[in-house]
Each structure stands twice: as C-alpha cells, then as structure tokens.
Design a protein that fits this description.
Elements (H helix, E strand, L loop, with lengths): L1 E7 L4 H11 L6 E8 L5 H8 L4 E3 L8 H14 L4 E4 L8 H6 L4 E5 L15 H9 L3 E8 L9 E8 L6 H25 L3 E4 L2 E4 L1
The chain binds 5-O-phosphono-beta-D-ribofuranosylamine.
C-alpha cells in the first residue's frame, strides 16, 4: 500500500480528483493517510472530512522560520508513514530540509506547461492571466517532481489545453483543471504507485 499525504491551501478540486480515482478503483493500493492545509478554512479540508480522511492545518505563520515549518511537516508525514507527498494547490514554500527529506517523493501540479508561465509568483489564477495576455494558443498543466527551486523538478506528465479567443482567466482555469489537472495528477500517482517512473537526469521515463 502506498501512503500519500496531500498538501492543500484552497478549494481542493485536485484532492477530490485523487479521492474519486481511488474510490473508483482506478488507482489501486494507494491510501490518502493525511491532508495538510496551510489555511484553516480551506474547503479541501471539508472534502477530506466528507471522505473520512484526517485533515489538519499546519500554517507557515505559526512557525518562526522555514526550517521549523519544514521540520513540523516532516514529523507529521513521518508519523503517518507517508511514502509520497502530493502538492495539490499548496501555496506555502517547502524549504531545503523538507525537499531533501522527501527527495524524489514529492510531486506538484502546476497549471501551465512548464517551463512556460511558471516559477516565483506564478500561482493560482496568475498563470492563466499571463497566458491570455501573451496570446499563446495552447496552455495546459504539468505534474513534476518537486525540488527546492519552484516548478523546476523533472516533469512526469503534461497535458495541453487550447486557449479560446473569448477566454477569461477564470474560464481558462476551469478548463485546464477539468481537461488536464484532474486527469494527470491522479495518473502520476498511479504510475508512481506502480513503480513505473524512472528519473534519469532531468527526464522522467515511464516504464
Ligand atoms: C490548481 O489550479 C492547481 O493547478 C494550482 O492551484 C489550484 C488548486 O486548485 N496549483 P484546487 O485547490 O485543487 O481546487
């Protein structure tokens, strides 16, 4: 059984997609053992509760520095014997201690095709605003392994989504979630659980 811990900060639609794929049996031998939110009022915690999954708020604000926050997250995930950490809309920064402790075992969903529209400051609705401003015809989502630098780890899966002429950032965000994020994040977890991801330098081979 692969134990996963999910880091959230907001609505939790990606968490919901993972829950649904586990409950439908599409993802096998995976259990969400804890949901950790950086915000006490994140609806993602409600979603976890509805599915009998333990949720907790561990907020960066209650720690003096990033090292103490890292240590708190590490001890929480160790106590739950977490094998894979999934960042699903998590808005706090993970520091060196955490990313080292879970090297190769943290994945993140980014709402754009990395290396475009990513990095510091590109979160939530912002990537979609920049996509529309830039006039590109295609955007999408990326699941990648997490390293210290934001959105810079080896890419596991990507899925493209066409930008429509009359898109607003909100409409585009919803389509990227529906057509890309909610598909590739659960798929990446399934592949990880089946030991089918092989990191070779900057590339991830799916065997
Ligand atoms: C998603 O767009 C995700 O790509 C980004 O943050 C948003 C989280 O949405 N990292 P939700 O909380 O999963 O609904």
């Amino acid at each position: 059984m692969l134990n996963i811990g999910v880091l959230v900060s907001g609505g939790g639609s990606n968490l919901q997609a993972i829950i649904d794929k586990i409950e439908s049996g599409y993802i096998k031998n995976v259990s969400i053992v804890t949901v950790v939110s950086s915000k006490p009022d994140a609806y993602a915690l409600e979603r976890a509760k509805k599915h009998g999954i333990k949720g907790i708020c561990i907020s960066r604000k209650t720690f003096n520095n990033i090292d103490e926050y890292d240590e708190a997250l590490i001890s929480h995930f160790k106590a739950h014997e977490v094998d894979l950490v999934v960042m699903a809309g998590f808005l706090s920064i993970l520091g060196e201690r955490f990313t080292k402790a879970y090297e190769g075992r943290v994945i993140n969903i980014h709402p754009a095709l990395i290396p475009s529209f990513c990095g510091k400051g590109f979160y939530g609705i912002i990537p979609h605003q920049k996509v529309i401003e830039s006039g590109v015809k295609v955007t999408g989502a990326t699941v990648h392994f997490v390293e210290l630098e934001a959105d810079a780890g080896p890419i596991i899966l990507q899925k493209a989504v066409y930008v429509q002429d009359d898109d607003t950032p909100e409409i585009l965000q919803k389509r990227v979630m529906e057509q890309a994020e909610w598909e590739i994040l659960p798929e990446a977890i399934r592949l990880f659980a089946e030991n089918r991801l092989v990191i070779e330098g900057r590339r991830v081979k799916i065997i």
